[in-house]
Amino acid sequence: MRRGVLVPSALAASLLLLVPASAAAGSPGRSSGEGGAPGAPGIGDPYYPAAGNGGYDVSHYDLRLKYQPATDLLEGTATIIATALQDLSRFNLDFGLTVDEVRVNGRTAAFTRSGDHELEITPVAPLPRNRTVSVVVRYAGKPSELKIGGWTAWHRTPDGGVAAQEPASAVWWFPSNDHPLDKATFDISVAVPDGTQAISNGVLRSRSSRLGWTRWNWRSDRPQATYLATLAVGRFDITTDTTANGLPVLNAYSKDLGGDAGAARASVERTAEVVEWLEGVFGPYPFNALGGYVPNVTSGYALETQTRPFYSPRQFAVGANVSVVVHEMAHQWYGDSVSVKGWEDIWVNEGFARYSQWLWSEKEGEGTAQELADHVYALHPADDPFWTVRPGDPGPDKQFHLAVYDRGALALQVLRNTIGDEDFFAVLRGWPAEYADGNASVGDFVEYAEKVSGKQLAALFRTWLYEASKPAVPPGVPAGAVRAARGARSAAPPAEPRSYRKIAATDTVHDRGHGQGHDQGQGGDHARAHSRDHGRVHGRDHGH
């Protein structure tokens, strides 16, 4: 589905109306008389129709795992606590490894496979609507050998393995309702050989050793999207601390990072400082722990895995870069606590994370957000394909295109100039509180910004997020100064802010593929390849 032309007075309402009714978790399925009906095999996302499932809502995942780094063998028992949203005769989980047994409410259930990653489960009796359901899945397999659409989201490392990808990674290591609309709390318990560490989300509750194996027990006590769950097994140096507010900080670094080790530490060890500053911008930190980890992977991207972002060593290949830490920690508010309703709403994640880098630059005295906006606007001529990407609905092939980040941040600078700093920063702080632990769309944000500012903002967002052309008026030009701005086009381009190259060095933050290169103007060949392949994972080939 694509949005049509939007008239200014109806933009926010139009955006909200265009979210499909099926986007509510589980809403695609309906009861059809006695015995119930099957839950839908997809949650209703227009970009990835097979992502997620209908008919139920998960509240908690308990994952008890055992992983052997030498062979990449993962064995697991997943206990899923959910509520039936309809009378369910059958339901699906998204999962790719080999399943040995499924139990529903303690009783053995029949199961079969369909498509690339659908696990269809039939309980012995239909599940009544509004009842709590427990599902136990026992499974095993080698995640790196599971290929869906020709690729795997599992990183094999010299001493273990890592699960960290967007928009999907859960399929490779635990069964789930794999869409951000169905968030849940997590307990993740992982046994690994002694001398090896298992890093995951949230708080490390306990660690114990027995018969050559060490079990690491992690807890995330706030709702978390499945793609934000992470697991890293290997040999790490771990640092721990607490914030001024008493939250635990845990960072982990592969012991074989080589020349990138110092720069990685010099960046990630500033996480608590960055979060303290971000609290002044976005409000109280939303989770029970913070930190980050840097495994020895060959990829080039970073990812906002909840409470503990993943960083590829290549993010620090040219030296320390706190800007990427700012980006990923900003996502804890924008993307993690408040998650997308559908993947078309990706701007609500990425535009704000990029803009936080601009605000950090402003704070560090290395270029104001306005100077960065002026530079980015001037950097891309009108015929640059950069301007053909619509951040408010970029399409699955362009979901992680640079324009979603930079043009998305430009929209925020224009908003700031339009409503003034007082209302702008009230919006930045109020939005994560308004939608905490939930989901929201671009249309929700437009509506919220209009409510706070008292101004009609539809034309602004249409111009900067939805029109496939370069806006005629630069981001720093006030209303009524259009003619002067057009006459100044021949003037010298604005100077490059000192922070720009450091921020641009994090452009591969959105290159979710294998990190083998990045074309700033087009979003990177591997980013595009990954989007196409992920479309196949979720039942959609984008035809490229």
Automatic annotation (TrEMBL):
Its EC number is 3.4.11.2. Residues 320-464 form the Peptidase M1 membrane alanine aminopeptidase domain. InterPro entries: Aminopeptidase_N-like_N, Aminopeptidase_N-like_N_sf, Peptidase_M1, Peptidase_M1_aminopeptidases, Peptidase_M1_dom, Peptidase_M4/M1_CTD_sf. Residues 59-228 form the Aminopeptidase N-like N-terminal domain. It catalyses: Release of an N-terminal amino acid, Xaa-|-Yaa- from a peptide, amide or arylamide. Xaa is preferably Ala, but may be most amino acids including Pro (slow action). When a terminal hydrophobic residue is followed by a prolyl residue, the two may be released as an intact Xaa-Pro dipeptide. It comes from the Bacteria. Residues 525-544 have a biased composition (Basic and acidic residues). Residues 1-23 form the signal peptide. Its cofactor is Zn(2+). It holds the Pfam family Peptidase_M1. Keywords: Hydrolase, Metal-binding, Metalloprotease, Protease, Signal, Zinc. It is an enzyme of class 3 (hydrolase). Residues 509-544 are annotated as: Disordered. GO terms for molecular function: alanyl aminopeptidase activity; metallopeptidase activity; zinc ion binding. One of its GO terms (biological process) is proteolysis. Belongs to the peptidase M1 family. This is Aminopeptidase N. It comes from Streptomyces tirandamycinicus.
